[in-house]
TrEMBL record:
<dbReference type="InterPro" id="IPR000073">
    <property type="entry name" value="AB_hydrolase_1"/>
</dbReference>
<comment type="function">
    <text>Demethylates proteins that have been reversibly carboxymethylated.</text>
</comment>
<dbReference type="Pfam" id="PF12697">
    <property type="entry name" value="Abhydrolase_6"/>
</dbReference>
<protein>
    <recommendedName>
        <fullName>Protein phosphatase methylesterase 1</fullName>
        <ecNumber>3.1.1.-</ecNumber>
    </recommendedName>
</protein>
<keyword id="KW-0719">Serine esterase</keyword>
<dbReference type="GO" id="GO:0051723">
    <property type="term" value="F:protein methylesterase activity"/>
</dbReference>
<feature type="region of interest" description="Disordered">
    <location>
        <begin position="15"/>
        <end position="64"/>
    </location>
</feature>
<dbReference type="InterPro" id="IPR029058">
    <property type="entry name" value="AB_hydrolase_fold"/>
</dbReference>
<keyword id="KW-0378">Hydrolase</keyword>
<comment type="similarity">
    <text>Belongs to the AB hydrolase superfamily.</text>
</comment>
<feature type="active site">
    <location>
        <position position="194"/>
    </location>
</feature>
<feature type="domain" description="AB hydrolase-1">
    <location>
        <begin position="109"/>
        <end position="384"/>
    </location>
</feature>
<feature type="active site">
    <location>
        <position position="221"/>
    </location>
</feature>
<dbReference type="InterPro" id="IPR016812">
    <property type="entry name" value="PPase_methylesterase_euk"/>
</dbReference>
<feature type="active site">
    <location>
        <position position="372"/>
    </location>
</feature>
Length: 406
């Protein structure tokens, strides 16, 4: 990593806002009620993978939750929320789904990034459904170790396997469970944000081998970037305003995670922190998605701990960081379907992607005025991009090649 780039990242870290210090309420807050739909089944998520010592004690100070950051129900954004048992992966997977209204419709399969959940796509899902007039459905999932996805049988707490191969296998197994009859399955368009993009790129050829029709792969704000790191997005959820960390920047991720608070005393406080730090620039989306990324602190936690902690301890995923993104560019360019890369703000590609772009191997879209959470910051603009991409490639005339196909 160049000295200049390292200095720039460290300068960003030094400017991050301080951790909030608040008193712990007498009773735990209900953090998940906002993302359930009616009487659909719920789950509390898997146990934490690894407990890391608290960085600093939190002095007690009471604070009334800000109602303007109160959680919003997901019921206005998805038609269904269900737990889907997937024996092949040993998971009970949380799925949010708005099916297409027509028999020959397409379903966008949305995979979130590290630390988030399927509800990160809530606002985007509604926009896509509206713009496509119901012809294109949206299915968003909570991947292993995230959201309300839990292990089917787990007698003892275990550390989750979040390797890229495992996450890819999980996605393929879920889709095989949901759409077991390949001949009757809808056409799929894979959409992945950050880590989710890496999963979708790897799942594409596996699904095609099983006979599924894949109309395209859209990767949101992540590049392998060994040679040209960009300050425009990020690989992992951090408290930076907007920063893309490629493989070269992974050594600094622990410092970035240290800049996050260890937890919050209410869902409102969690939403407020994400909005005020510009981690998510759309308050409505944050009010839907953020309650799913926190969970009540374990019973018996010290009094200095906040009432709500991060559901997925990202520091414990460090052994997987490099493998998540290694080889991403080549696998993306090799996908035998239409390909699109959506970046936030600044157009920066690694050498392999730059050559691929000049050769017309994929569609590149740069959305200005957003951070790493492109789909939450400006769901309307991204929905326009995705619906246009879908229409161009799903309704392609026989004999005419799709975008990105040679």
């Amino acid at each position: 990593m160049s000295g200049l780039y390292r200095s720039a990242l460290q300068a960003r870290i030094s400017k991050l806002p301080p951790m909030p210090h608040h008193d712990i309420p007498d009773e735990d807050e209900e953090t998940e009620s906002a993302d359930s739909l009616g009487s659909l089944p719920t789950g509390m998520g898997p146990p934490a993978m690894q407990v890391w010592p608290a960085r600093t004690p939190r002095p007690a100070r009471k604070r009334t939750p800000n109602a303007s950051f109160a959680p919003i129900s997901a019921s206005a954004f998805f038609d269904q929320a269900n737990q889907v048992a997937v024996p092949a992966s040993g998971l009970d997977v949380r799925v949010y789904y708005t099916p297409p209204k027509f028999a020959d419709g397409t379903v966008m399969i949305c995979h979130h990034g590290a630390g988030y959940s399927g509800l990160t796509f809530a606002c985007l899902a509604k926009e896509i459904n509206d713009m496509s007039h119901g012809e294109c459905g949206v299915l968003a999932l909570d991947c292993r170790g995230h959201g309300k996805t839990v292990r089917i049988a787990s007698p003892l707490p275990q550390e989750e396997d979040l390797s890229i191969d495992r996450l890819t296998s999980d996605l393929v197994s879920l889709l095989e469970t949901l759409f077991p009859d390949v001949s009757a399955a809808p056409t799929l368009l894979l959409v992945g944000h950050s880590l989710g993009g890496a999963v979708c790129v790897r799942a594409c050829p596996l699904l095609q081998e099983h006979g599924y029709r894949i109309t395209g792969v859209a990767v949101i704000d992540v590049v392998e970037g060994l040679s040209s790191p960009s300050p425009g997005s990020q690989l992992l959820m951090s408290s930076c305003e907007s920063s893309e960390y490629t493989l070269e920047a992974l050594p600094l991720m622990h410092s970035l995670l240290n800049a996050r608070p260890e937890g919050f005393d209410s869902p409102e406080e969690a939403v407020e922190w994400h909005v005020k730090t510009n981690t998510i620039r759309n308050p409505v989306s944050a009010r839907v998605s953020i309650p799913a990324v926190i969970t009540p602190a374990p019973t018996g936690s010290p009094s200095s701990m906040p009432a709500l902690v991060w559901r997925t301890p990202l520091r414990a995923t460090a052994p997987y960081w490099t493998s998540w993104f290694t080889g991403l560019s080549s696998k993306f360019l090799a996908a035998r379907t239409a390909r699109m890369l959506v970046l936030a703000g600044t157009e920066r590609l690694d050498k392999e992607l730059m050559i691929g772009q000049m050769q017309g191997k994929f569609q590149l879209v740069v959305i200005p005025g957003v951070g790493h959470m492109v789909h939450e910051d400006d769901p309307t603009r991204l929905a326009e991009v995705l619906v246009e991409f879908w229409r161009r490639n799903e309704r392609v005339v026989v004999g005419v090649k799709k975008v990105g196909e040679l």
